[in-house]
Amino acid sequence: RGGAGAHRGGKMASTAAGKQRIPKVAKVKNKAPAEVQITAEQLLREAKERELELLPPPPQQKITDVEELNDYKLRKRKTFEDNIRKNRTVISNWIKYAQWEESLKEIQRARSIYERALDVDYRNVTLWLKYAEMEMKNRQVNHARNIWDRAITTLPRVNQFWYKYTYMEEMLGNVAGSRQVFERWMEWQPEEQAWHSYINFELRYKEVDRARSIYERYILFKALAILVLVHPDVKNWIKYARFEEKHSYFAHARKVYERAVEFFGEEHMDEHLYVAFAKFEENQKEFERVRVIYKYALDRIPKQDAQNLFKNYTIFEKKFGDRRGIEDIIVSKRRFQYEEEVKANPHNYDAWFDYLRLVESDTDAETVREVYERAIANVPPIQEKRHWKRYIYLWINYALYEELEAKASSDNLEDAERTRQVYQACLELLPHKKFTFAKMWLLYAQFEIRQKNLPLARRALGASIGKCPKNKLFKGYIELELQLREFDRCRKLYEKFLEFAPENCTSWIKFAELETILGDIDRARAIYELAIGQPRLDMPEVLWKSYIDFEIEQEEYEKTRNLYRRLLQRTQHVKVWISLAQFELSAGQEERLPRCRQVYEEANKAMRSCEEKEERVMLLESWRSFEDEFGTDATKERIDKLMPEKIKKRRKLQAEDGSDAGWEEYYDYIFPEDTANQPNLKLLAMAKLWKKQQQESEAAAMDPDKDVDEIQT
């Protein structure tokens, strides 16, 4: 029992000792992410650089005698046969097996493997290619021929077999055998690249006549006295003709082109054929033939399919034609292009502008008018101003053309009347109840003034203001009357304008400036009073500034002060206070400095409750600049005491969804006047001062050289 107790006691002691040996986990003080992060890509790159995952190469096996070699061959063959037995359809296993036998120079065994593989899948192209390449590599030419014959007989539509077979025969110097293979291939009517390969083969051996006969078969294949089309494409005829041209058979080449034109007829005309025919004749210096070919083709080919034909005809005329012919071609080509564009999209007004610019420069007035009438007939389908902005310029250009290009003047009443009709038709077309174009009304009025018809101009502008009043119309009408020095009419127009838009500060200012120029100061002041009394204004600060500047120009300083006071009743903006102070400073009176300082005092008191501390700082800085220039030492010291302290603070940010978005640092201003009213801030300042004194005392106590009295102090 005692032994058991001792055993248990020893066990408990060891357990306690074990517990004591467990190291304590260190507490992580900073749980923020590290500045340099290690990515998975970096780990993989370092593993590759240090070659941590590379396995050592397997040991090389050395074979020393024949029995060991036979044993190795037996094992490998057994492995290959097992792989084939598992899945006979995987051709890669057969090919690897055959290539291994080939590497051992066991050609007969390799043939046997390839034959067994062909029994499994005779449609596999790679298998035939590897089989034939093995025979060719080992110089077994007859075996290779046998394989190629079997391949092209079994799979005649695989072009690669034919290419390899003909190439092998040609490399062996068996030109007749290669030609025979090509003939067998052509009986299958292959794609055009095969025909070109056959032609190039004959040309390599200077057999031009044979190549020509191949071209004939290439284009038209006759069988049983019936015309069978093999490749009746235009480019094939062109290649045939260029072949004849290359070998200097120009008559044959021309005959080929003529046969092609006759073959395709007028139903299947192609511009590429005629371009090639014309270039051939151009090379032969037959310029009249070229011109006839181009004109014949342009008269019969649809315009949308003759772009390249137009281009080449233009280049030809630039080289060998006269100036008039070149211009006619260019204009007709561009007119055709624009006609196609406007036909595809009649509301493409940019295309109409380009088209009209072309016809204005080259054709008579009647044709231009016809195109303009066609263009303006395409009215935008939606009555929204953004859809009419490009369309309205068609009318403007039309009217300007009639007035300027058609030589409309006061002497030619018919042309002037036509221009007037264009303007009136446009103004009748516009839906004035929904929107209008002030530009059109003003252009019409200016036209009538140029025609010395002032009543019609006034009538048009009056109708525009009555139907669809706009700021631009009023301004244009007033400007017209100002130029005519009709000031009473200007007053009436300004009155109507301000009835229409009483919130427009610019109009009030212009009206008052007009009265000022005319010398009616009381009337101008009354206009300003009416303006600032409006309940809604678009730019009130501009209006007040203009009114104040007006009173300053009249040297009415007391009225100016009253204006500033009235403005300060509406807004306590810092710029108004600064402007009032600068006015008092520039008034030029004896009491200007006390008045200016009093304004700053009032402004500072008024802005103590302002939340925008930057504005208060701006006021104090302006006040300090004033005191630096005109003040005494006492006033300077006083303003320095009023300047705030700039401190850095943090505030919590919130995202749009209400979640925390971190903290933001910002600068705040602590004004001495506000600090005196807040005991918490005063207590904090005293605490900071005490802490500073404590630090200085500790530093002095650590220095033994200092005097005791100094330490106590």
TrEMBL record:
Domain annotation Pre-mRNA-splicing factor Syf1/CRNKL1-like C-terminal HAT-repeats: ranges: 92-385, 415-571
SUPFAM superfamilies on file: TPR-like
InterPro entries for the chain: HAT, HAT_Syf1_CNRKL1_C, Syf1-like, TPR-like_helical_dom_sf
Compartment(s) where it occurs, according to its Swiss-Prot or TrEMBL record: Nucleus speckle
Keywords noted in UniProt: mRNA processing, mRNA splicing, Nucleus, Phosphoprotein, Repeat, Spliceosome
Cellular component GO terms, alphabetical: nuclear speck; post-mRNA release spliceosomal complex; precatalytic spliceosome; Prp19 complex; U2-type catalytic step 2 spliceosome
Segments forming a coiled coil: none
Residues covered by region (Disordered): 1-28, 694-713
Keyword Repeat recorded: yes
A Pfam family: HAT_Syf1_CNRKL1_C
Family annotation (Gene3D superfamilies): Tetratricopeptide repeat domain
Single GO biological process annotation from the record: spliceosomal complex assembly
Family: Belongs to the crooked-neck family.
Role: Involved in pre-mRNA splicing process. As a component of the minor spliceosome, involved in the splicing of U12-type introns in pre-mRNAs.
Protein's UniProt name: Crooked neck-like protein 1
Protein species of origin: Panurus biarmicus (Bearded tit)
